[in-house]
Amino acid sequence: MKRHTVILLLMVVFSCKVPQGKIEIDRVQIDFGDILLGQTVSDSVNIRNVGNSTVTVMAFPDCGCTIIDEGKIQLQPGENDGFRFSFSPGVSGFVQQKILLESSDLSENQLILLTAFVKTSED
Fold this sequence. Notes:
Elements: H1 2-15, E1 23-25, E2 29-36, E3 41-49, E4 55-61, E5 66-68, E6 72-75, E7 80-87, E8 93-103, E9 110-119
Parallel strand pairs: 2-9
Antiparallel strand pairs: 1-3, 3-7, 4-6, 4-8, 5-7, 8-9
């Protein structure tokens, strides 16, 4: 009898859906192509909450050459928003930087990869 009660209790616990936000990002890599040294380029990533609970997302660039307009957003279920950022590499050649997205949706953190080839002249 006790065993049946425990099994029934476990079945009920595992069948319950826990409210949880879940994010989807429209793209995780942005290639700016060829840009000039000292040039600032801008873009954005869109994020959607496909879960059933509110989710908070924070963005952290890995260098001072990337500036994020607003580093924290909160999304209700079904809501869409994003991060706008500017990128101004200070070195020439192939440049690769990252923006870390941390969210309260309990999944792994996400990385947005920014790449560009920075030239010193228009040639």
